Amino acid sequence: MIELTPTLDELSSEALYMQLYRYIRDEIVAGRIPSNVRLPSIRRLSAHLSVSRTPVALAYDQLLAEGYIRSKPRSGFFAAELELPASIPSLHAGSRSIVSPSPPRAYHAPQDEPGRYDFGYGSIDLASFPLTKWRKLMNRCLLPENSRLLLYGDLQGEPELRKEIAAYLYQIRGVRCRPEQIVVGAGTYHSLDLLFQLLKKEITCLAVEKAVNDGMKALFKQFPFDYRPLRLESDGIRIEEVYASEAQAVYVTPSHQFPFGMTLSIGKRMKLLNWAKERQAYIIENDYDGEFRYSGRPIPSLQSLDDDGRVIYVGTFSKSLTPSFRISYLVLPPLLLEQFRLRRHSYDQLASPIFQKTLQLFMESGDFERHMRKMRSLYHKKHDALLQAIHHAFKDSADSIGAGSGLHVLLRIRNGMSESELVRTAKKEGVNVYPTSPYALKPEFAVPSTVLLGFGGLSIEDIHAGIDRLKQAWSGG
Length: 477
Ligand SMILES: Cc1ncc(COP(=O)(O)O)c(C=O)c1O
Known about the structure:
The protein is an alpha/beta fold. It folds into three domains: 16-79, Arc Repressor Mutant, subunit A, CATH 1.10.10.10; 117-124 and 370-475, Alpha-Beta Complex (Aspartate Aminotransferase, domain 1); 139-365, 3-Layer(aba) Sandwich (Aspartate Aminotransferase, domain 2). It is built from 15 helices and 17 strands. The protein has helices at 16-29, 42-49, 53-66, 131-141, 159-173, 188-199, 214-222, 239-245, 266-279, 302-305, 334-343, 353-364, 367-394, 419-428, 460-475, and strands at 69-72, 76-79, 117-118, 182-185, 205-209, 226-230, 232-233, 236-237, 249-252, 282-286, 311-316, 328-331, 398-401, 408-413, 431-432, 434-435, 450-454. Strands 4-12-11-10-9-5-6 form a seven-stranded mixed sheet. β10, α10 (302-305) and β11 form a beta-alpha-beta unit. The longest helix has 28 residues, at 367-394. The termini are far apart. It binds pyridoxal-5'-phosphate.
């Protein structure tokens, strides 16, 4: 049974029963009272609303007569199953829905109707998530002695977790920082939003890679910086363009450019750091999947090469652990840290202290390190399987772009199909691949006939089977 809490206006010229009737009718039509849900009894609703039983009984009578509800002997009243037209006209003037018909989807969220083979980029290998260990540690956090975790936490993130993150980043990415420089956030774009709030007083112009993730694009819309797109070469952005841009900060994904996957060469890294030092500018380094590199030596982060406090490092646990916990972090250089501390009262949205504590315990115990070793080897195998399957299926009629690290590659197909045809024909074969044009900063930067394939969430067998299906889908082009 549901409770109903309409706003009834005793002073209105409209009778109470009519107000109540309209309210329930609209709620049923809009689906907010789902079909077959039991409504409160007349006695209960009149008590709840502090009105006599008469208006409630009259409203129910009217709804019954019009078929919006049905009554079942000795059980009560139930919302009827309505055959609704695709678009429901508003039933009373002035009632306008403030909720968009489909709420915005988190980027990379799984599709409503994923195909049999979903090369979704936001997925991870679910079967490998250490559920048992995590559950055990989380249970520990929920013991009475840890009840302080039920309260607000430290605005900058739980100090013990920051200590673990600092140690981890040093080992895995060469990042040199003290735990006090770390600010824990609830996802990369939350962290970057916070950073942009800090930077907006200091900078007006931001140079950015000419293709960026959709979360980044959404963020750019909210901050009125002068954005200068930077072209991409096989070894990353052009440093001359950074100089020419007059920007006071640059946003880059140096380990694995998103989405093209190239790595910023060491030569360019040094030049970029020089630029930042000369211009007293900032480099925002988004190292979203820097832990996963499958060939050659690990490439140290830009932050690890920075002696002048110009790099702001951004990272996330979305790839290394799971996107669902929403834990990310910023490593702020000392100058910005001061700014953050001065204005920290405005930034009080943190990842949950319970999840932070669980993560800290997970890292402290060595389980995270073991998990990372396992995932690196597993994703390496999946990566190789994907490249092999692509080569086998398409030979010279396709290029894989940006392989060698991370959890996705791009595929450029030369069969005459456009990007949207590639996506559509794949879907007909039960395979989801993803367009790359939404990542272009401007429509003219989009590259033709290129789709994105994430491989983290698929088994090796499914990677092979999915690519086989793509071959069938695209061979008729
Ligand atoms: C460039 C980039 N940064 C960060 C992320 C992760 O974002 P979040 O930490 O909000 O899950 C992604 C997506 O997975 C991404 O593509």
